[in-house]
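Fold this sequence, please.
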Amino acid sequence: MIYPIVAYGDPVLRKKAEDIAQGSDLKQLIEDMFETMYQAHGVGLAAPQIGKAIRLFIVDTLHLKEEEEEEADTEEQYIKKAFINPVIIETGGEEWTMEEGCLSIPDVRENVNRPERVKIRYFDEDWQLHEEEYDGFTARVILHEYDHIEGKLFIDYLSPLKKRLIKRKLQKIVKGEVNTSYPMKFAAKEIAL
């Protein structure tokens, strides 16, 4: 099942998500989230982006592996995983800048600084506990999706000037005045930016 992506302006994107009861069967939801993410051409998707304020997100950077292997010899980590009730233990390394976008904020891409490494504890879909460290692009995707379950968006990292420059685009998203190749659910009201 493909869910509509919740657009910027919906309160669920600003709510801190709730822990999921251990042992809950999330396999169908996770499968649906992957299907939704692929249909929207994303590399990550958090449950709040489909209207569910629960601590769950998915990441798939595996398809980028072939592209990068053709371009450079790198040690980048690639994953396809679900993260249930994740907790970031630590971040580290140098902060680096990369242009980010978000399925909930279409047509807006801006440079964001993030640490190069993240150590995270989470449950998988079989409720097995993991503690792992990631770096590079995969760490960035994890941090971006983790922000979603904390009620934070990538635009929160922008300077006041950058926020003013994208204000009109954000208001258009809130009103549903944007075209995407994937289904979206819009708040359809004015909000303070």
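The first helix runs from residue 27 to 39. The chain is about 25% helix and 30% strand.
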